[in-house]
Structure formats: C-alpha cells, structure tokens
Amino acid sequence: MLYSCKLKSVCNLPVIYNKKINTTGTSNTDVPLAVPGMYQLDITLRRGQSLAARDRGGTSDPYVKFKIGGKEVFRSKIIHKSLNPVWEEKACLLVEHLKEPLYIKVFDYDFGLQDDFMGSAFLDLTQLELNRPTDVTVTLKDPHYPDHDLGIILLSVVLTPKEGEHRDVELSENEVVGSYFSVKSFFWRFQTQSLRLSDIHRKPHLWRGIVSITLIEGRDLKAMDSNGLSDPYVKFRLGHQKYKSKIMPKTLNPQWREQFDFHLYEERGGIIDITAWDKDAGKRDDFIGRCQIDLSALSREQTHKLELQLEEGEGHLVLLVTLTASATVSISDLSINSLEDPKEREEILKRYSPLRIFHNLKDVGFLQVKVIRAEGLMAADVTGKSDPFCVVELNNDRLLTHTVYKNLNPEWNKVFTFNIKDIHSVLEVTVYDEDRDRSADFLGKVAIPLLSIQNGEQKAYVLKNKQLTGPTKGVIYLEIDVIFNAVKASLRTLIPKEQKYIEEENRLSKQLLLRNFIRMKRCVMVLVNAAYYINSCFDWDSPARSLAAFVLFLFVVWNFELYMIPMVLLLLLTWNYFLIISGKDNRQRDTVVEDMLEDEEEEDDKDDKDSEKKGFINKIYAIQEVCISVQNILDEVASFGERIKNTFNWTIPFLSWLAIVALCAFTVILYFIPLRYIVLVWGINKFTKKLRSPYAIDNNELLDFLSRVPSDVQVVQYQELKPDPSHSPCKRKKNNLG
C-alpha cells in the first residue's frame, strides 16, 4: 500500500512530496513524483480562437512567442488576416526549473512598425502530469486591462523527464529512510549534469548562415494612383529582421538594384515574408501584393535568380538570393577568450595578415568585445533598482547578454566576437532595463568607431542618452580588440556602405530642423566668405593682397595642367597634417556641440491611427512629410560639406591617408596619361558595365568614400566622454586594498 508521504529536509535536502497535481488543480495520489531536474516540454501550438482585432480591416496577423525565465524560446509563424488562426506547430523545449512558468504572448505582425500586443497568459508547469499528453486552453489577457477578453489559445503539452537525468520516485511507508540516499545520489548526478550542460553552451554560435538578397526590379506592378502609376517600395522580414527598400516614384516597372543581408538562425532555413507597397503622402500606404521565399528549398553557396508572382495583387519581383556559411559571430563567458589562447590568436593574425589580401575580400577583420560590468546605472523600477541587460551591435550583427535582476551595478563578464566587413563601422553598446510585460526601458548607450579603439585596454565609457549628445547616469566597462587587414579595409571603403535593416523612422522635430538649417547655413557661409574674399582681391581692398593674387593667377593659368588639381588637394592635406602635429589644430566643434539639441518627442502612434480618417489632419501630415523631407535634405547637404572638410582635417587619419594615396595616384596618372585616354577608359567601363554584369549595383566610389567620413554631428556622437575619476579601475583596486 502506498502512502502520500513527505520527506523533511535533512542535510539541506529539499522537501519532496509524493503527490501529483493535474491541470484542473485536483490532487492525485499514487502517481509518480517528478524530481527537480532537466525536463523536456513538447508543445503543439494548435490554434487561436476569437483573438483581438488590431488592423483597420477588423482582422490581425497573429503570431505567438513562448518565454521561460524571461528568455524567448520559441516564435511561431505568422498567420495573415485571421482572428481564428491555425498553426499546428511543434516546439521541443528543455526546462530546468518547473517553478518558472511558460509565458505565452501573442502579437499582431505589422511590417515596418512595432508589432501590436494581443494578449498574454501563463502556464504553470508544476501542474502538468508527467509523460501524459494534456490539452490546455489558455485565456489571453492584457495586464493593464484585465477585464478585456482577448480570446484563447489551444495547446497540447507533454512534460517528460530527460532520460538518465531523472527518475520517478515512489515512496512507501517502509522506504522513507532508504530513499534519502537515493535522493542524495540523484542531486549529485544533477549537479554534474548541470556542469556538462554549461560546458556545452559556453560558446554557442548565434546563427548558422547569411542570406544575401539583391532586389533587382519589379515588373507590371498594380497601379494604385489616379495617374495609372504607383510609387512602389518593398518590405522584407525574416523573423525579427526587417528591411525596407527605397521608394521608386511614378512607375510600374521599378529598378531598385539594392543589396542587403539577413542572418539565418535555423538549420532548416526559414521563410522570408515580402510585401510590396505604394507610398501615399498623408495617408496609409496602399498594399500592392505579397510573396514568400522558402529558404529550405534553396541550395547553399549558390546564387538563385527568383521571379516571384505577387499574391493578392499583380506583377512580379525579381531577386537574387544567396545562402552562405556562418560568419564568426559568437558569445561566450569571460573565461573563454579567443585572443588569450595563443593558437587561436595566431590563427586570427594569420587570417588577416598582409599576405592574404585577395582571400575573401569581404572578411576585413576580427572584433572581440568584453562586456565586463556597469556601475551607477539609472533606477528604472519603482523599487529603486533595475534589471539591466546589454545589447552589443555592429551594423546588423546584434548580440545580447543575460539580465542581472535588481541591480544597479551589474556584472556580465561576457565576450562577444564579430566578423568585421567594414572597418569604418561603429560599435554600439546599449544598456536596457528588462520589463516582463512591456518593451525594455533605455538606460544608456555608447557608440565607438572601430578605428578609434585601443586594443586590450579596459576602459570605463560614460553612458550617453539616446541621441548620443550628452551623458546619462552610469558607466560601462569594456575591453575591445580589433584585428584587420588594412588593404582589404581600403578596398571595401570604395564600395557601398552596408545599410542597417533596423532603423528608427524619421520624425519631424523642430530642434532637429533648426540644427540642420544651422549646419547647412554654416557650409554655405564658407562658400559665401570665400566668394567675398576673392571679390575683395578684384576690388583691390588690400593692394598687397590683390597684387599677390594677380601674380598667382597669371602663374597658375599659364602653367596649369590637369594633374595640378589633385596636387593642390594633396598640399591642403599636408598643410593640415603639419598644423595638427605642431599643436595648431584648427578643427572647431564647439559650435556643433552647442547646436546638438536633444529631440525628446514622444511617439504618437495612436494619434496617427485616429487621424487617418480625418481629411484636415491628413493635410497636416502631408505638410509634415514635406517638412521631414526638407529636414533630411538639409542634413544630407550639410553632412556632405562636413565630410569633405573632415577628410582634409584629418578627423579620421586612416581615411586621410587613403585620400593621399589616391590623390598621388591620380596626380601621376594625369601627368603621364593624356586626358582623352582617361575619359575613354571611363566611358568604356560605364557603357559596358551592364553588359559584363547585368545585375551589378551602381555605385560612385567617391561618394562611397565620403560616406565613411563622419559628419560633425557623428563626430560629437562618437566622442568619448571623460569618466568620473572615482570610476577608474586602478583607483578601485587601491580602495579595495585599503
């Protein structure tokens, strides 16, 4: 006869009950007992019923996230335009602690926008019977509006102990004493198993490959405007990764020629969702059509040309898709350090040595970032604490640390490694506060250009605000190492810059518009002052200056040759270089710092949706869009002038030296080769480029070079703030010794 009995804690052993609780909350005796340890949770996501409508058409595009312990462990596919979606997807999860519930969240997918929350629920794993399939119905609720009915989600779950790591225990009246030794030996095995698991996951790769996509063109797209044309653009999404193409005005056969990369997380591939839209000023963009790419059907290391028919619309999209092997991007504990291992360091140095210039030109360098700790962070919770975690980004590579709960001085001790594709990239490290039911709160950020990094030095970086214009509370300790091939980096400078597929949308800001206007005015005033100076020479305001200018004019015009143009630019670079090394730095940024006004506008997404139905408000938004365009044009023109100035001001020495090499080459070429031959070679290259490579992406090497030079605003954003001396690591050691 079996009894429902209890073992009291002996020698720090936990209390164990021989009871089983089913999903209805009733107790069953004489049922095998689940001993704490590693479990396998098999979930079948069946369907949803009567979900909340989040789109204007009265439907939603729902998908489901599963989280355990604050970490996302599964994300379902998207079911478009349905309030009763059917998924029938299976997920196999490993669970260490049954006390941590399964957190289920449902979202409405909005392409290019923040996905709408549709409800959440918790599943208590301690109430599941072992080794028995159970149908579960969870009711979705909004924590902020608990009375609202948001529908239900139907699941089938099976919870089973992992073989060799658990065993079911039945305790009889005569077995209580002997069971102590069995439980003790079990916990010893559980501890050793946990150590083996930690060894397995010390250095996981975050993704398995790269999907390179080139959007070539659209054919016979649907006309959405009254003039029989459209202003089409295309959105791509693979999981959480998004990309939006540029807008092609007034055409049904757009030519995009855009290239971008996505990361491939799943071994079997994935589904890329593609939607085409017509841009409409002042109102919601019109839907043209959608299609999908099943990556599991494509072979790797091969370029596929795809002509995709748009569903729910008209026309085709032409794409090039290439699946390549995984990049060297990883996360590990501080004890696992690639550069401290002599063999690994030697291999990395050999891979980027000058002798391997033409081996994989896209592989420019290697970046290792140690995220050690942060101190004095902002308190984001009502308890006066925060739950900070850190996000490390390099272009489209994005890795996260774990969350340290209820701490303003967290220690992460994580090492991130990245594959560098552009040495002019900027490393962004952002600290967030984790919120279970809301988006994470921003705590601080730093932006560090790779070319400004001093290898192997642990530094305390003062955290900045979102705009990177001023300090916020706290510092973060980082140690960064960069190894790269200078020749590969120089060659990559002359090709288009990689675009980020996750970027904030532009918003109208009075402060930003004013700042861009001031920057534009400053660039124009340089030209105006130069024109006044030249005119004063013609007017003989200063006879000595005018006489010198007249003699110089005669000498230059009489002896002018085309090669003298790059030579003059070389002299300007050389002059500024000697001014800098002599201590007479003429680079002025104080006025720019004063002009860096913070843009603290709040999001008005709800107001945007309500205003779509009002004609007058639509006109206001049309005016706003024009103002945003003007704001962006001012920024582009001002940035262009500032980039040229900063090239000659030696703001980025690597780029200035590269400009010197190029100008020397141009000077020699123009001196020895007649201009007609140079123009002939240039014209032949331009005319035959499309014949030689039909899908080549057009680019301008000079503009690509200038895109790597930071504007004055970026120089301020990347400028390192001086930390409080009390945060110095050396001083901390002395204080600890004291």
From TrEMBL:
Pfam families linked: C2 (PF00168), PRT_C (PF08372)
GO cellular component: endoplasmic reticulum membrane; recycling endosome; synaptic vesicle membrane
TM spans (from-to): 547-580, 654-682
UniProt-listed Gene3D superfamilies: C2 domain
GO biological process: regulation of neurotransmitter secretion
Matches recorded under InterPro entries: C2_dom, C2_domain_sf, MCTP_C
C2 domain ranges (all copies): 20-138, 191-308, 342-463
Membrane topology designation: Multi-pass membrane protein
GO molecular function: calcium ion binding
Primary location recorded for the protein, binned into one broad class: membrane
The keyword Ribonucleoprotein belongs to this UniProt entry's keyword annotation: no
CDD domains: C2A_MCTP_PRT, C2B_MCTP_PRT, C2C_MCTP_PRT
Record-stated family: Belongs to the MCTP family.
Protein name, entry field: Multiple C2 and transmembrane domain-containing protein 1
Encoding gene (name): MCTP1
